[in-house]
Amino acid sequence: MDRRCQIPAASAGSVGRMIQASQLVTTRLVVRPFVADDAPLLVALFADPEVHRFVDDGQPLAPDVAKLWVERSAANLERFGYGTGAVVERASCELIGWAGFARPGDGTEEVIYGLRRADWGRGLGKELLAGLVVFAWERGISPIRATVDPANSASVHLLRQAGFVLAAPSYRGDAKADLYLHGG
Question: What's the pLDDT score for residue 51?
């Protein structure tokens, strides 16, 4: 098995979600800390216009930015004990996305997630978001925040399905960012 896919032995047969060894484990996914080798995989993932169109500035991820993301994620893991990491499919051990909690600079934390297009429509986004909600509750993060472009109907649907409610349309005056909250 690829070492980047390994999960703690105690959780290998478990159903549902648990957090061990800085990983979020769901039935079909592992969210683990990024490693340096993930940077080029993230660049490849973001090369798909459908994947990057609702992320940040809607542009592909440059190699130097991917490297910085991996480094900052490691720093956040060290400082806070969690952050953003690689979403790996347990069956294939392939990196298929990213997920975790971003800190936009205003003292808040926001859940973020994305999957490669080949994995859309398989229920993985729903499973991933449910795992992130449990992860947040276990750490006392409340309310759980997410900002989403209202044109990203798939993500809006996932958030609503997971119990998030629209709290602020055009958040901070940005017509491409609605704020959703869960709990609290």
Answer: 87
